[in-house]
Specification:
The chain is of the alpha/beta class. The chain contains five helices and eight strands; from the N terminus they run H-E-H-H-E-H-E-E-E-E-E-E-H. The strands form two sheets. A six-stranded mixed β-sheet has the order 1-3-4-7-8-2. A two-stranded antiparallel ribbon has the order 5-6. The N and C termini lie far apart (69 Å).
């Protein structure tokens, strides 16, 4: 005998998951592309090289801004190396995806603002800030919706239109204080 209630529940679950996937993809597509507030380019860089490096860097920060993997795939080289790899994060192409998914689990409305992008040879230095609300889980801590905002700086190396290397630093102390995870004794 067919259990209609079970079938209906399964159908509703499939529809709900499909809607969430559609909404997630739509929100990524609806997000504005990252527009650096200031771009500084060394005079010696040919325009074609400059444009390729800026496009690659923008794709990477569009990924950080939206979580859309298509941007990451456009930006990261197969032999990507994170030179300041935090414990627990996988090396290579999987690292930025792992970090994005984990952090978006804690701060689903995460946005990035690129303040400065400096292009010098094969290197692009980016100063940015992240903002959002801590509503999810970060380790064993659940957020209460508190706002978070912190700065970060990346040094990217780009070869053949792809990021091969990244050195980065984030203001993790400010972030952890805002999340209620760390305190500083006065």
């Amino acid at each position: 005998m067919l259990d209609l209630d079970r079938s209906r529940r399964a159908l509703l679950l499939v529809a709900a998951v499909s809607a969430m996937i559609t909404l997630d993809a739509a929100s990524a597509l609806a997000a504005e592309p990252v527009r650096p507030e200031e771009i500084i380019v060394a005079d010696s860089i040919p325009p074609a090289e400059r444009d390729a490096e800026l496009d690659t860097a923008r794709a990477f920060y569009d990924f950080l801004n939206t979580g859309d993997v298509a941007f990451l795939e456009r930006a990261i080289a197969d032999d990507f190396t994170d030179h300041t790899l935090p414990p627990g994060r996988p090396q290579g192409r999987e690292g930025p995806l792992f970090a994005s998914r984990a952090f978006r689990g804690a701060v689903p409305d995460l946005t990035v603002t690129v303040h400065k992008m400096i292009v010098a040879g094969p290197f692009v230095t980016v100063h940015m800030s992240f903002a959002g609300h801590f509503t999810g889980m970060f380790g064993a801590v659940r957020g209460d919706g508190q706002p978070v905002s912190f700065i970060a700086t990346d040094l990217l190396k780009i070869r053949d239109g792809r990021i091969t290397d990244n050195w980065h630093i984030e203001d993790n102390l400010t972030l952890l204080q805002q999340m209620g995870i760390a305190t500083v004794k006065k």
